[in-house]
From TrEMBL:
EC number: 2.7.1.24
Originating organism: Hymenobacter chitinivorans DSM 11115
Similarity field: Belongs to the CoaE family.
PROSITE patterns named among the record's database cross-references: DPCK (PS51219)
Protein's name in the database: Dephospho-CoA kinase
The entry's keywords: ATP-binding, Coenzyme A biosynthesis, Cytoplasm, Kinase, Nucleotide-binding, Transferase
Gene3D superfamilies on file: P-loop containing nucleotide triphosphate hydrolases (3.40.50.300)
Domain of life: Bacteria
NCBIfam families xref list: dephospho-CoA kinase
Single GO cellular component term: cytoplasm
Amino acid sequence: MLRIGITGGIGSGKSVVCRLFAVLGVPVYDADSRAKWVMANDAVLREALVAAFGAEAFEASGQPNRTYLAQVVFKDPEQLTRLNGLVHPRVGLDFEQWAQAQQATGVPYILKEAALLYESGSYKQLDRIITVFAPQAVRQARVLRRDPHRTPDDILAIIGKQMSEEEKLSRADYVLRNDDEHLLIPQVLKLDRQFRQG
């Protein structure tokens, strides 16, 4: 079974691409949503987060206090590195367990969607990487439409914290162009055929 990663900058359309693969029957692991689940449900991680960031890291309901954690790490790169160093390994373990369960079903390949595929080191668990590419202006316009609470400066700040598009493209095994000029479905179907053949 092949393990394929999908990454791309904010607004590139990773989630759209993953939905297309899911329609084709491909199991998709969404690292961002699973990270939220792991933070709320993994006792080892919970203990480590409280030790690192205090009891305020969790709300009374038991859910992670995202607002508090975001305030702690947003302007402090060391604290962000600390948070990621606790969360990413546990999400990696969760992915490994999920991948093994998928392998037992006999599927030819699985996908892992993650914005921070390289930064988290999780690309090392994967056989091949797809980068979803769109020009920055297109990505910004999409995010502004999708997240009306964000300002153009907010989006530029997020883009500034992500790995450059040039580096993502240079490290990718495959590039899907989601730039409003190339049709996306034929590109996805072509890769699906390739992956099913091994």
